[in-house]
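Postdoc handover notes: sequence design on the structure in folder B. Input tokens:
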């Protein structure tokens, strides 16, 4: 009899929880598929702070790094679709299908898309001793040094690696790519002149450009950046590489099958966070641009990622690189 009563109580508690409005008095976890301290981790922590009030619940960050970001993503793909386990990922959502072999989930089929969060521009920079100041000067230098150019990046599948691959494709010039374990050692060697070029996020290059430790030749957005440091720096599109655009974006996802009412609540909280002055200020301090267009809506976010997959898959496959 006692067991029957315990079972009945458990069933009633479960039913009540199912009927209760989301979220309940338990934390919502945002999984970051990278180690603490990086740009994606900072974006997640800033977003968690901004979403707490509109959700009326605690929001915590859970770091689950490894395998080019696929371990953390798989954790969310396989989680219970109840709105309490979310994924915050960057451009890796579009590059993992080509970069990660034997991936245990499908980017377009195994997630509910909640909205795009921000974009971080990239910069094409060189060692300070490289001759010239304009992109035209750089083009001449590249033509003169074909076969002897070292292009550094922060590791296979990193933002700097992807940008460098696309740049080489766009100018039809192969360079010796030099992988590092992170941006910091790559930047150290660029400053020291051990490598010639690098394409990396403004979050990683602005301080070195301002200190004149490296030279900047172009930005990778379609329009010039409206900031004191970059407003005179041309875009690669201006320089003749039509349609060249690379930004490192971040988006928010839930497991496939999460109830529509829960998804609506989460998307509403995300859009409220994107308008939060404190969140915007924090993102601007990272060199990131908060999304203000329709990509903050689930359907447009999904269309955007699908287009990014189409863009990056042939570039990665042609290079024959893998993140596993």
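Designed sequence:
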């Amino acid at each position: 009899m006692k067991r029957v009563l315990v079972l009945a109580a458990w069933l009633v508690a479960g039913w009540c929880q199912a009927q209760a409005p989301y979220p309940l008095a338990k934390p919502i976890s945002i999984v970051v598929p990278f180690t603490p301290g990086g740009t994606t981790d900072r974006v997640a922590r800033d977003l968690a702070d901004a979403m707490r009030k509109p959700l009326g619940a605690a929001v915590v960050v859970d770091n689950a790094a490894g395998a080019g970001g696929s371990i953390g993503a798989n954790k969310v793909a396989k989680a219970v679709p109840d709105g309490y386990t979310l994924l915050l990922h960057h451009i890796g959502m579009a590059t993992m299908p080509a970069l990660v072999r034997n991936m245990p989930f499908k980017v377009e089929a195994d997630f509910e898309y909640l909205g795009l969060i921000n974009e971080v521009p990239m910069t094409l920079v060189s060692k300070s001793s490289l001759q010239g100041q304009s992109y035209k000067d750089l083009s001449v230098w590249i033509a003169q040094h074909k076969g002897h150019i070292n292009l550094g990046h922060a590791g296979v599948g990193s933002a700097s690696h992807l940008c460098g691959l696309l740049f080489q494709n766009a100018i039809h010039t192969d360079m010796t790519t030099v992988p590092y374990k992170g941006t910091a050692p790559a930047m150290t060697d660029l400053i020291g002149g051990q490598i010639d070029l690098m394409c990396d996020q403004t979050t990683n290059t602005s301080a070195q450009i301002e200190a004149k430790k490296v030279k900047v030749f172009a930005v990778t957005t379609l329009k010039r950046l409206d900031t004191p440091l970059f407003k005179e720096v041309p875009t690669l599109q201006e320089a003749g590489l039509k349609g060249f655009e690379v930004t490192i974006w971040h988006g928010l996802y839930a497991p496939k099958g999460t109830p529509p009412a829960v998804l609506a609540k989460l998307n509403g909280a995300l859009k409220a966070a994107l308008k939060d002055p404190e969140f915007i200020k924090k993102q601007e301090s990272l060199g990131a641009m908060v999304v203000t267009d329709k990509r903050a809506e689930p359907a447009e976010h999904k269309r955007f990622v699908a287009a990014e997959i189409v863009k990056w898959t042939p570039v990665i496959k042609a290079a024959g690189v893998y993140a596993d």
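Context for whoever picks this up: The radius of gyration is 22 Å. Don't rerun without checking with the PI first.
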